[in-house]
Amino acid sequence: MRAAALVLVLSLGGAALADAPSQSLRPIARAGVVDIAPPAVAQGGLRGLFRSLRPQPRSARVEGQARATRAALQRGAVCGDPDLQGEAVGPVSGQMRGCGIDQAVRLKSVAGVRLSTPAKMDCGTAKALKTWVERGMRPAVGSHGGGVDSIRVMASYACRTRNSQKGTRISEHGKGRAVDIGGFALRNGTEISVLQDWGRGREGRILRKMHRSACGPFGTALGPEANRFHRDHFHFDTARYRSGSYCK
């Protein structure tokens, strides 16, 4: 029985060997197909790539200039804000009852925009002016004339009554809470004038946007249409009213 089984196995193996293919079963490459080798990475290529992505350190000269600029801004800063450049004045007393400023500053520039003449005011008004310059004045002018170079200040602190009229209350100017602005010098040498340009063309539209945007940062925003006393300037002050800002 075992012998018969052995004979059967050998016969089957022989048949399998007889039927084996004459060639290997490995796939044969098709004609016209080109082998694509993986791209070779140059020696140190990845290392060089990582080096190029790393930020380059600033030179000692550039770093020194930046430090000097920051130090200069800090020295000239008032109201604890480097964007408000000027000098501290301290308490200011007035000749009339109701005038004066507890802690006055003499402001020379606001958010990088020069004032034509230093303006004396309190810190609350200086900060309101900065807010308006950044959120109102600059967006209104945009790139027109290259942008605003300086603000023409007509009045700031002055111990007087409202509109210098007898029998009226002390003006916000007499409390260091007001600034009057007559125009804006642009970087191309031209000027936008409240007196000359209000209601006229593109400059007139810019002035209206400026006036409108002051309503909020300031408690009072008066322009040429308020009354005859303001036909040539904007009057902005930080007086606060229960009914909200007064703008005209």
UniProtKB/TrEMBL annotation:
Residues 1-18 form the signal peptide. This is Uncharacterized conserved protein. Residues 95-248 form the Extensin-like C-terminal domain. It comes from Lutimaribacter saemankumensis. The lineage of its organism: Bacteria, Pseudomonadati, Pseudomonadota, Alphaproteobacteria, Rhodobacterales. Keywords: Signal.
